[in-house]
Amino acid sequence: MKVEIEDMDVSTICDSVSSLVEGCRLPVHLDGTSDWPLAEIISIKEVQGTKWYYVHFVDFNKRLDEWVTEEALDTRKVHFPRKDLGPGTGVTTPKKQQIGSGINTNVNTSAQTSRPSSPVVSNNSSELLNGNAVLEAVLQKKMNRKRKGPSLESEDSQEGQLSNQQQTPRQSGSMVSHHDDIVTRMKNIDMIELGPHRIKPWYFAPYPQEMVNLSCIYICEFCLKYRKSRKCLERHILKCNLRHPPGNEIYRKDNISFFEIDGRKNKVYAQNLCLLAKLFLDHKTLYYDTDPFLFYVMTVFDHRGFHIVGYFSKEKESTEDYNVACILTLPPFQRKGYGKLLIEFSYELSKFEGKTGSPEKPLSDLGLLSYRSYWAQTILEILLSIKPVGENEKPQLTINEICEMTSIKKEDVISTLQNLNLINYYKGQYIITLSKEIIQQHYKAMENRKIRIDSKALHWTPKDWGKRAKW
Ligand SMILES: [Zn+2]
């Protein structure tokens, strides 16, 4: 009897492996950990008799997706895709459902330390849960009233508009969400070599087909052209004279420079930059049409040249006050303060333009964390620096003044104050209270921000692109 049961178990396991199809969900070993989180099989391939499964860990960001063999699969708890949703071959599984579940789960769990990652706006919904609903509503109304005059009607319609924006990321902007087809869901490049760095890509990028099945792509770190082998790249480097990004160097302080590149004048560079960036940015599709964009590439200088660290792109004209379209610090340079520096620079440009601005949505999980932290630090820095007007007076500052001083858009200022839980209602007015803890945390965080943007090192005059007949 006992033997039979064991036999049965074995046969069930074998059956499961062979009956696994795309769309199945089951526990899968997460490399480098002892965990077996739930994962979905996105694709199956057979290489020289071995089956490989491309899996997406349901509660994790897509950058952890990978090819695994059968040893990493726990076939005792397989959920098969529902029959009415198609045969589960990935391609035919209903796309809408996958988009929804994929993006939402990414968003909710990858930013575990913070609130779900999506635009500022989605804070608002979590704020509501946190009991800030009244404050939220009042502040919103106050803002609308100021903006729109005292008409109740316009208030309502304004709120309606806002909540629409909250629910659906804009599709009309410079970036469009990916069609979630099977190809773009899977990483297609194994490795890139960029200068001295070997970097494992996180996401799909539309490099030409002949580059896709190589063990590594070799990229010139100055002009960003890609080659199939190191030999090819070496030949390229002999001919390539660039030692810095094209365009104008508009900022230099110590070893940090920024170059401004016009997506129309330097199309090939801009396209190659977008391709490279796509390897590390999810849910943003690049436009091959780079004409409407400017690219700000940050470099560090050494005796060999100006090496790219990160960049952001910006629409020449944004009807929605976006001051950043895509933003990325390349992985070897992450967690060193460069992300904040890029963000700080983008607001510095907005200050020169005399405008407030905000990054285009949706932000990546990591992007959102950086922005939240940048906003908090920038606003706290200002709150701690203002002096009271008279003796025994409390310092006074309006939200509009914070916006003017920082070029941070009003919505982002308000959501930051709320996230930090700084706003209190006291004797008929809103006051900002800074606790000792907040202040201590702030000073500690600022100790880590050793590199800052120095506005005196920026040599730049904003262009009015609207006045030009053609970019
Ligand atoms: Zn080159």
From TrEMBL:
CDD domains with a match to the protein in the record: NAT_SF
Keywords: Acetylation, Acyltransferase, DNA damage, DNA repair, Metal-binding, Nucleus, Transcription, Transcription regulation, Transferase, Zinc, Zinc-finger
Any single Pfam family the record assigns to this protein: Tudor-knot
Known EC number: 2.3.1.48
Protein family (similarity comment): Belongs to the MYST (SAS/MOZ) family.
Domain (MYST-type HAT): residue spans on this chain: 184-462
Location relative to the cell: Nucleus
InterPro entries in UniProt: Acyl_CoA_acyltransferase, Chromo-like_dom_sf, Chromo/chromo_shadow_dom, HAT_MYST-type, MYST_HAT, Tudor-knot, WH-like_DNA-bd_sf, Zf-MYST
Principal location listed in the UniProt entry: nucleus
Annotated Low complexity bias: 116-126
Biased composition annotated in UniProt, kind: Polar residues: 90-115, 159-175
Protein name, per record: histone acetyltransferase
Any one of the GO BP annotations: DNA repair
Single GO cellular component term: nucleus
Region (Disordered): 80-126, 144-178
SMART domains found in the cross-reference section: CHROMO (SM00298)
Residue stretches in coiled coil: none
Species assigned in the record: Hypothenemus hampei (Coffee berry borer)
